[in-house]
Design the sequence.
């Protein structure tokens, strides 16, 4: 029986690794559906984050190895657009729906969406 879900996320494309856990903390390969949302920081005066992207991914026991199951989720239509003033971080929220077991949720907060970049490389001599 699944008792909990842990996730991890990486930069550029969203890479999500899931670890469904059993009673004793053991990894449980499961069948189900993984639903992932990428939420940007909420604007002042508003509740909840801004939905930047959403994915649904079928999960199969064959997807798992000793490190869990990893899915590379590509941004739809080239990904969200960010201005220079935009916050480069977002929360990755995941729900794993396992028929007969339940719905398990996890969040990876403040994931950096792109690497640090140099805004101005101009040098004065």
Sequence:
């Amino acid at each position: 029986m699944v008792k909990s879900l842990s996730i991890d996320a990486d930069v550029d494309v969203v890479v999500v690794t899931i670890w469904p856990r059993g009673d004793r903390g053991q990894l449980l390969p499961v069948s189900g559906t993984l639903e992932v949302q990428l939420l940007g920081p909420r604007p002042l005066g508003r509740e909840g984050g801004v939905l930047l992207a959403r994915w649904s991914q079928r999960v199969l026991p064959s997807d798992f190895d000793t490190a869990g199951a990893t899915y590379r989720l590509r941004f739809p239509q080239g990904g969200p657009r960010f201005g220079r003033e935009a916050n480069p971080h977002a929360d990755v929220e995941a729900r794993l729906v396992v028929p007969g077991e339940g719905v398990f949720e996890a969040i990876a907060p403040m994931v950096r969406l792109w690497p640090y970049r140099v805004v101005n490389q101009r040098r004065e001599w």
